Amino acid sequence: MSIELTYFRAKGEKGAMADALQRDSAPPDAGPPPDAVEPMFDLLELFFFAYRDFVGDADRVLTRYNFGRAHHRVLYFVDRRPGLSVAELLDLLKITKQSLSRVLKDLLDQNYIEQRPGFNDRRQRLMFPTDKGEALALELAELQSRRFARALARLPMGARAQAAAFLAAMCDPGTCDPGTCDPGTCNAGSGDQK
Predict the structure, then answer these.
(1) pTM of the full predicted structure?
(2) What would the pLDDT profile of 153-163 be if each residue is shown by its tens digit?
(3) 63: nearest Cα among 148, 120, 136, 144
(4) Among 69, 144, 148, 153, which residue is least crowded by beta carbons within 10 Å?
(5) Which residues, in sequence order, are CB contacts of 30 under 8 Å at separation 6+?
(6) Helix, strand, coil shares of the chain as percentages rounded to 5?
(7) Nearest Cα residue to 62 out of 72, 52, 47, 54
(8) Which residues lie across from 114 on neighbouring strands?
């Protein structure tokens, strides 16, 4: 079954792709105010399909463990931010304690993450990935990074920094701060990479 995007159908695949790849040389489009924007069906469709395929890669691996996307999100952030408290994770993911409870129990019971008492407050529970959890988090990150690398290889130099800036701009203000990445491990926006 072939999926054909409305934007590509209207413009022709080569014309639409050429437009997308020429954005570096196009003048910035101020456009109408945000509340008067017409639907951007081409971007909406591309975003839906890209997201479907991006998470689908990880979904196929997660099914081997009887895990889902919620398990992936929790494991990802516990692995990236060892020592994260439950309250910090709830705030980061914007979910309720009830929705986290089952997922956290699965990851703890199957030894993918562990909880330790807080440094200053022994009642606080800090989460850390186990070796098993680090291995699964890395497997998923490498899988999804390969998809990014394939896409970026088709684009002009500097596309990685532009993609990072675009994704950060898509986040609600104050909810997605690329500056929170650890400089030693986060390459978001690095200059020479695609």
Answers:
(1) 0.72
(2) 999 999 999 99
(3) 136
(4) 153
(5) none
(6) 60, 5, 35
(7) 72
(8) 128
